[in-house]
Each structure stands twice: as structure tokens, then as C-alpha cells.
User: What shape does this take?
Amino acid sequence: MDAAERRKRKSRRLRRERRIRLIWYTVLGIWGIFGIVGIASVAYWIFGAAAGTQVVYGGIKGPAIPAALGRGTADTQEDEPQQTKLLSEEDRSTCKRLLEENPALLVIANKDHGLSRDYDPDLRYICSGRLQAASAVYDDLVEMLAAGRNAGYEFWIASGYRSSERQQELIDEDVRSRMRDGMSYEEAMERVLREKLPAGHSEHETGLSFDILCSGNMEMDGTQADEPGNRWLVEHCSEFGFILRYPADKEDVTGITYEPWHFRYVGRDAAGFMEEKGLTLEEFTENAQCAGL
Ligand SMILES: [Zn+2]
Assistant: This one.
């Protein structure tokens, strides 16, 4: 082998080694980048979640829900305090007495007040097993529907008890659907929470609330108010322990737009008193809390 041949072999070997080194550097480089990105992602997820900027809410990753909608965060609410209709001292005492007599039936669930995490109502089936209701409501509900039938009206209960998991599913479904239509997560959640309450905050989770539609009109919208059957319910429901929970003239108090179909059981005494004084459950509760002040 002459010198020229040896030089050629040597340079071929060097080129091969350089290629191998290059491949190794590339592999290590890519690995390194993935490693850094991975560590950064984990750190962002941990610290971001701790800072409330990146919580997982109902399986969808996004920004934290507004504090006022969070469970048990009523004291962090930043909205303007609402004007509450303050009753006379005697009436405030009546509110307090009624609340103390039956706190379970007067439990409040709304945007500001969530149910306790271990809230677990005693339930029984209604509507041939299609729905569930709190046991305490059963007799009065059956009696009210029977009285309505005697007056010539048929009703369809569209919704009764709903678990907080189901409430969350309904919110998630709506959010996903709006995101598919092009909204950002924040926009979609904001829109959905205008109409639905977050899990843990819906009255349906108490088993004390029912969406009652008039037979012949299955639309859960303002047209229910035009039905004679709905008018009968609104007029007579308090006799059976129910209140129209979200009246048209109390949207600023309840924080929920008018729902002519949503009835809430509070017991006959409380319902009669609330009907007589024109109180929402929020106003009733606040007056009870102001008794003796
Ligand atoms: Zn409802």
C-alpha cells in the first residue's frame, strides 16, 4: 500500500467518524430539547395551577373559573352587593324561625353559595323511575300535580335531581360545543355560565327543584309563561310548598334569567310566607340572617 492510498483511507475514516459524531450530537441535541421542554411543561403545570392560572376544570384545561363562581368563595365575590328587600323586625324573625325549623328544605345553592361537598340528599324515584327527587318533596309534588290535573292541566317534569357530576358534564358538553363553533375556552365558559350554574351550585343537585313543562309545549323557554297550566302552577304552587325560583322581576337578585318552568320546594310554611311577602330564596335567607339586628 503506498502513501497516497494510506492517506485516502485515513481521510475516509475521518469522514466516517465525523458523520457518526454529527449523528450523535443531533440525537443528543434533540433529546436535550425535549427534556427541557418536558421539565418546563411540568413546572408550568404545577406552578401555573398553584397560581390559579391553569386549573383543570371539568376535564377541560383552561383558566380558573371566576372566583365568585367557585365553591365556597362567596366572601371573595367582587360584584356590587345586591339590594335586598329588608322586612320588618317581626317578618325577619319569621324568616329566621322558618329557616331554623327546616334548614334542609331551605338550603341555598346559587352562584355565590355552593352546596357542601358531602351534600347527599335522600332520594326517591318519581315519574315511573325516569327521575329522582328528594324524599321530602314527594308527597307534596304528587299532590300538586294531581291538583293541576283536576284543574285540567297536564305537566311533564323535564328535570329533577341531578348529581354534581351530571351538572359538570352538561357544562362541559356546552363548552365543547361552543368551542367547536370557534369560541375560545374563556368565551365559551363565560357564555355557558350565563345560563348554567357550576357543579355544586345548581339547585337540581338538592333534589328539591324541578323543571315542569306544560304538556303540549316541550320548549324550555319563555313560551311556558303563556301556558294556562304554567299560570296555574305559579298561582298555586306555594299551597304545596313550592316557589317559582327565578321570577322575571327578580333577575338581579337571583342572578338567573327568568325561568317560568323552574320550581323549588321549600316546604308549605316557608313557601306561603315567601309568596305573601314576594321574596326570593335569596331575600328570605338574607332577612333570616338579619333577624335581631
Ligand atoms: Zn331547572
About this structure: Confidence is low (pLDDT under 50) at residues 46-78. The pocket of zinc ion is lined by residues 159, 204, 209, 211, 262 (CB under 6 Å). Residues 3-50 form the longest helix (48 residues). Residues 3-51 form one domain.
